[in-house]
Design brief:
CATH superfamily: Cupredoxins -  blue copper proteins
Structural class: alpha/beta
CATH topology: Immunoglobulin-like
Strand order of the largest sheet: 2-1-4-6
Number of strands: 8
Shape: globular
Order of helices and strands: HEEEEEEEEHH
Number of helices: 3
CATH class: Mainly Beta
Distance between the termini: 45 Å
Bound molecules: copper (II) ion
Helix content: 10-25%
Strand content: 25-35%
Radius of gyration: 17 Å
Length: 145
Amino acid sequence: MIKYVYLLIFTIFTAVASSEEHVVKMLNSGKEGMMVFEPAVLSIKKGDTVKFVATDVSHNSASIEGMIPEGAKPWTGALSQDIEITLTEEGVYVYQCTPHNMMAMVGVIKVETASNLDQIKKKVANYKKTFLMNQERLDNYLSEI
Ligand SMILES: [Cu+2]
């Protein structure tokens, strides 16, 4: 019996220890241009956390309705504030900076698999209509996952 308890504790401990934290900076200017998340494309494991850091002010991170996996929890960060989220559902998540979505300040996170990619791509055409510049950015990001 005691052996199983140890095994259980060990399993829980390794599960916790193996979840990683990824950092995404919110920037006025980055390698890929003006108003960007960096890195804008992440591939992570289920249960990992992503911390959006307000390196520059007046940005936030917010999930986009219909562009996250089914059952996933949406998020909306406050302007100029760090926000940390834990992603527990597999699939692709697309998020934006609310004040700069017109400039295609968006990012993509893949958790394990791209199972909902087709569903997201259907939404992209319509969503891109809000972009006034960097029209190709989201397509490029999605092609990287
Ligand atoms: Cu922004």
